[in-house]
Write a structure and sequence with these properties.
Layout (H helix, E strand, L loop, with lengths): L1 E3 L27 E3 L5 H15 L11 E4 L1 H11 L16 E13 L5 E9 L2 H7 L4 H4 L14 E5 L11 E3 L1 H7 L11 E7 L4 E10 L4 E4 L3 H7 L7 E6 L5 E6 L10 H4 L4 H14 L3 E5 L9 E3 H9 L7 E7 L5 E11 L15 E5 L10 E2 L5 E2 L38
Parallel strand pairs: 8-12
Antiparallel strand pairs: 1-4, 2-9, 3-4, 3-14, 4-5, 5-13, 6-11, 7-10, 8-9, 9-10, 11-12, 15-16, 15-19, 16-17, 17-18
């Protein structure tokens, strides 16, 4: 089941109405209740919560933006959930990168596990249409390199749960500074200062907790209602819980699970995500000049297959020779960023037979850190930042390089292949 949050996000995203009421797993539970009513004042904090759960590096296009869609990347996401034999994958004569205009964007949340995902409506464009569009403001069309990212709310904290936080006999220990910033002020004149908190999750479900200041030394705790929340959300040690407070004082809470989803999409969507369905729908949209939909989870691996147009163009027109040192950012589960560096060791198409000249993961790289399971040996040009502060590396003299293929030693450049050439 999917919950459409589109009715509570700002006007930056398409409003299609329709939404789902959140619900408790147990109707007899008094610590949570369904409440889907929202006001314009609360729309911003909902969007903040969605982005906080998605991760600090998440950036989405908005309606009207021009983007580049990669069917190869879409298939990669689908295969992570339900692997299919690579030899059976045909390209349906699709170009490996397809120019599109964003016709709609939705922020959604998976009811089963609270993972956030997005649904985009994309309309294929001819390259000539993009050239004609360039007379308009770049910001209006999203031709700059960025996407939609919300302003960071100052009233938010994220805490990774400990074993005691998830114990059925304990409570949630809140850092004092976080409690004083996000929660309503307690009356410290009381012998045991306490209050009831009401926080709403991404589905509009209200959760009630007892906030108390006690112990020796004294500390802030969420007690009554917390164990029910942990149980119904299936939280374990290592998961993270986020609390956000809006300017009007309303509380929101979200979850970032320690184990990243392989896909993160609801079963209703995954059931139709096999390679033939995906590619045939896109091929039909290209031939009929109609829109098609893609859904992806920003926390799942390999999800960045819809890229802002200018970001793509910049990445393929800048020369990246073999031996180029680069830096990149990775989203980690404590809501911070981790910077990593590496070197480009080869340039070749990931699948030259079905997707010739594709820029998807066309750079073979070696990371400076050993044993990084979340790093891929092939990345896309727009994922890295070639750094002038790091000296070029001589591949031949590197002792850590193992059995490199020897691709053509010429820099990557996008100036010699047209986008959507099959349409022209």
């Amino acid at each position: 089941m999917e919950i459409d949050l589109n009715h509570v996000v700002s006007s930056e995203l398409e409003k299609n109405g329709g939404g789902g009421n959140g619900g408790c797993l147990s109707s007899s539970n008094s610590s949570c209740s369904s409440n889907s009513s929202t006001s314009p004042a609360s729309s911003s904090i909902y969007k903040e919560l969605w982005y906080a759960c998605a991760g600090p590096l998440t950036s989405l296009p908005k309606k009207g933006n021009v983007v580049v869609y990669f069917p190869q990347g879409h298939l990669e996401q689908s295969a992570s959930h339900s692997p299919f034999p690579p030899m059976e994958v045909t390209s349906f004569d699709l170009h490996p990168q397809i120019l599109c205009k964003v016709m709609g964007a939705q922020l959604l949340a998976n009811k089963d596990n609270d993972e956030v995902y997005t649904k985009l409506a994309l309309l294929p464009l001819l390259e000539l249409e993009v050239i004609n569009l360039k007379g308009k403001e770049h910001e209006e069309l999203g031709l700059d390199e960025g996407g939609v990212t919300p302003n960071k709310t100052p009233h938010m904290f994220c805490k990774t749960l400990t074993a005691s936080d998830t114990s059925t006999h304990g409570g949630f220990s809140v850092p004092r500074r976080a409690a004083e910033d996000c929660f309503p002020p307690l009356d410290y004149k009381q012998q045991r200062p306490s209050q009831e908190l009401v926080a709403r999750d991404l589905h509009g479900v209200e959760w009630k907790f007892r906030h108390i200041y006690r112990g020796q030394p004294r500390r802030h705790l969420l007690t009554t209602g917390w164990s029910i929340f942990v149980s119904q959300k299936n939280l374990v040690s290592g998961d993270a819980v986020l609390f956000l407070r809006g300017e009007s004082g309303e509380l929101r809470l979200g979850i970032r699970r320690a184990v990243r989803p392989r896909n993160g999409l609801p079963d209703s969507i995954l059931a139709n995500q096999n390679y033939r369905n995906i590619l045939s729908i896109v091929a039909n949209a290209v031939s009929t000049k109609s829109s098609f939909h893609v859904s992806y989870s920003p926390r799942a691996s390999h999800a960045d297959f819809v890229v802002p147009y200018q970001k793509y163009i910049t990445s393929i027109t800048n020369q990246i020779p073999i031996g180029t040192r680069f830096k990149t950012k990775f989203d980690v589960d404590d809501s911070s960023e981790r910077r990593c560096s590496g070197v480009v060791t080869g340039i070749r198409a990931l699948d030259p037979y079905r997707w010739p000249n594709s820029k998807w993961r066309c750079l073979t790289v070696r990371w400076d850190e050993d044993g990084s399971s979340d790093h891929h040996e092939q990345v896309s040009p727009w994922e890295i930042d070639p750094s002038v502060s790091l000296p070029p590396l001589s591949i031949q003299s590197s002792p850590r390089l193992k059995k490199l293929r020897t691709p053509p030693n010429n820099p990557i450049s996008g100036t010699n292949f047209p986008l959507n050439s099959c349409f022209l």
